[in-house]
Amino acid sequence: MGEGTTKIAAERASQCCIEPACGASYAIDERLYSCPRCGGLLEIVLRPGSQVAPQAWRAWWEARAASCDPRDASGVWRYREVLPFADDAPIVTLGEGNTPLYDAPRSARYCGLRALQLKHQGCNPTGSFKDTGMTAAVTQAVLLGARTVVCASTGNTAASLAAYAARAQLQCAILVPGGQISSAKLAQSMDYGAVVLEMEGNFDDAMRVIREVSEDDSIYLVNSINPFRIEGQKTVAAELLRQCTWRVPDHVVVPGGNMGNSAALGKGFLELFELGVINRLPKLTIVQAEGAAPLAHLFAKLDLKSSAHAPLSNDALVPVEHPETLATAIKIGSPVSWKKSLRAVLATGGQVLSVSEREIADAKAVIGRDGVGCEPASATTVAGIKRLVAARRIEAEESVVAVLTGHLLKDPDYVIHYHRNMLCAPHHSADGSQQERSLNGAFRNPPARLQATKAAILDHLSHAAEEAKADGPKLD
Ligand SMILES: [Zn+2]
């Protein structure tokens, strides 16, 4: 790409190691996946060129929302002043972002809140929040002159990378542990033309071999530690605030898996605060599934007064060796971005907690009754909010936004099993033995089998209406 393009980006941003004891800094166009000096995570540090009044940022972004230019129409590139790219960078976009912020009255009542809003990142082009990061990472791959982009993934990341690589006409390789990828997500990757490589061994084996492959200069690794993905994903903070007419919500609640999303949101809010675009921060709260909750365990042990200042060592987080949850998108025992994520939670005064499989499944069905379809991991948010309201750690009058990360159709088997009462989760007995137990969801809605007559249908409809009335208090 043009030398000027790279030079302008280099003046605007650099890649920095997040380890306070190291703090090494690297040029924006170096092809790095972690700090060469200490192995720590990298993050992009921006240097805004000139002093701009906060009102000006907002006015630019508002005006672009009405423009048909692809750069303005994208819900990521509209906020390009806070991205580490030159204005004329050749962007790879599918019109990502621009996702709806829904009022969810039923979910609000379920949680004990006066109002609740759902920011549905599952409405992105490939059905998950990953697209907002992938548009930035694949744009960087093109700038670096890569011919092939690769990732090891069992889910949404693979589908998203496959789509953006196709858009950029780059070769895309996806390494998956054989037989362990959901059919919906595999279907997406195949249709977008990715080379899908089913490997022997587990996810860790796939990660090891993909790191070796990406030592080749023509191959760019777009795994979860790629700092450019975080940059794209952080723009959801600006989009969300714009949709709230720049009134900062009291709480923003996100699911926690590999922690890239919460790290990105935290970075987004903190940068907007530093720029003066907002004058206070929402409390950022992360909700994990009980069987895959290493950060919630660590958070429960923290002395909040001292840990806000002292950096945590790498082994402070004890990985969950065999993570268990039906919410596969957050079935992660050793989250890569936990330090960035925890830093954001502590800086904003939020918290980290975990919820049970039953709570996730019921919350998902309640979200559905608001006409909003999400994948199971997304529903940890509403389940977590319900708990926090009950514990008076969120007040009924406060403004709360839950971030939904994936679309309902990413995991239709889960939904059908829930409503047919066939959804089972592992249960550990007191004697240490393990068995599968039905979740017995509270809001099941299985299909009925009827004779093909008008009378049978009308009779069933009136019966269903009566049942809904009797069920009302549970939901309303
Ligand atoms: Zn370092």
Q: How is this structure best described in words?
A:
The termini are far apart. The protein is an alpha/beta fold and 476 residues long. Helix 7 (183-191) links the parallel strand 7 and strand 8. The chain is built from 17 helices and 15 strands. It has helices spanning 3-12, 54-64, 70-73, 105-111, 130-143, 156-168, 183-191, 203-213, 227-243, 260-275, 294-301, 304-307, 338-348, 357-369, 380-390, 412-419, 454-475; strands spanning 13-17, 25-27, 42-46, 101-103, 117-120, 148-152, 171-177, 195-199, 219-221, 251-255, 283-289, 352-355, 400-404, 424-428, 434-438. Helix 6 (156-168) packs parallel to helix 7 (183-191) and helix 14 (357-369) packs across helix 15 (380-390). The protein has a domain at 101-127 and 231-414: Rossmann fold, CATH 3.40.50. The strands form four sheets. A six-stranded mixed beta sheet has the order 4-5-13-10-11-12, with helices on both faces. It has a four-stranded parallel beta sheet with strand order 8-7-6-9, with helices on both faces. The model has no long low-confidence stretch (mean pLDDT 91). Zinc ion binds next to loops. The site of zinc ion has 8 residues, from loops.
